[in-house]
Amino acid sequence: MLKARDTKGHILSQKEHITKGKFSFMSEVYDAYEICFISKVPPHQRGISQEVSLVTKKGVETKSYEGIGEASKLKPLEVDLKRLEDLSDSIVRDFALMRKREEEMRDTNEKTNSRVLFFSIFSMCCLLGLATWQVLYLRRYFKAKKLIE
């Protein structure tokens, strides 16, 4: 049995009673996926070795350019150009995503720096207030005990 799920628990692909084959699922969102292979072997066949090969592909890798070339009657050079065009589009999208993440990280870093600054200023004010109170308290205590004038 084969079952593929996303992080929200939605089942993207499910096949039962399979012995071999190629399986695929498509998703429009960037997410982590859980792919489970479950083997239900009858008791008299236990101990038989089973082999599972898992090859995952995403993005441009999943397209079959040979099929696209045959359907559109493209020459091999045109198919290669189509592959390169899709690859460059994918790289541009990845760079845009990386730029967006970098901006988010920079904003988070700046917020954290300002919070640390305000916290350190608050801590210094508290320490100065406590030090002043301690000096005044000890001064009053020593005057009460007549150790200082």
Can you summarize this structure?
It contains two helices and three strands.
Which SSEs are present, and which pair or pack?
Blueprint lengths: L1 E5 L4 E5 L17 E5 L27 H8 L3 H69 L5
List keywords for this structure.
149 residues, mainly alpha, 10% strand, 3-stranded antiparallel beta sheet
First CA to last CA: what distance?
90 Å
Helix percent band: 40-55%
Low-pLDDT residue spans: none
Strand-and-helix sequence, N→C?
EEEHH
Based on DSSP secondary structure assignment, what is the total number of beta strands?
3
Number of helices: 2
Largest sheet: 3 strands, antiparallel
Alpha-beta content class: mainly alpha
Q: How much beta, percentage-wise? A: 5-15%
Nearest-angstrom radius of gyration?
A: 33 Å
User: How would you write the strand order of the largest sheet?
Assistant: 2-1-3
Shape: elongated
- Whole-number average pLDDT? 88
Protein model, in words:
By secondary structure, the chain is mostly helical. Among the domains are: 1-41, no CATH class; 63-123. 52% of the residues lie in helices and 10% in strands. The chain contains two helices and three strands. The protein has a three-stranded antiparallel β-sheet, with no helix packed on it. α1 packs across α2. The protein is elongated and about 105 Å long.
